[in-house]
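Fresh eyes needed here. Kindly weigh in on this sequence plus structure tokens:
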Amino acid sequence: MYLSSFRLGDHPEYLVSLAEPGRRAAVIANAMDDEPDEMREAGVRRELDALSELGIEAVELDLRMYFGQPERLARDLRTYGLVWARGGNVFMLRYSLAASGGDDILRRLLDEDALVYGGYSAGPCLLGPTLRGFEIADDPTAVESTYARPPVWDGLQILDYVIVPHVDSPDHPETERCGAIANRYRAEGIPHRTLRDGQAIVVDGSAVSVR
């Protein structure tokens, strides 16, 4: 896994080293589903272009097209070597994974070492045990406004700690709110790790490092 605070981070060569040569990447941008269409499209294009500059061929995989179709999503995800989950509203991304069955599928594929998971901001945030606390930075009611369904508060539980991005990153507009999330976790004894923009957690087998 390549889990960045913001975009590709300062050392995207580690992402390239994890990605399987010759296999495409699937960009998941559902964290932006509450944004206007033109803004969402621009966000997707930025990720496709950034990965292309690294020599990684990428296409968007829109989880909304798989709601209620987990078997189809499982089949299609196996055709990719890398899943790249971009930032946005973590509650929107989490709901889309739940509605499509992508949460269970990702757990299974990562257990099988069948793909690489990468992403930034919302993408790493949802891998821990809980999303409680992220309402300080992201609006959970966006899920109800968009889908008339409640938000999902459980994380994917792929990691046993929560990743809090953008901490001590004065150029990022959410740095103060993310610092408040980290302070809350610290006070409540919730296991977590903080990242500054530019940093990424790299998980390669049993080796875990911050780059």
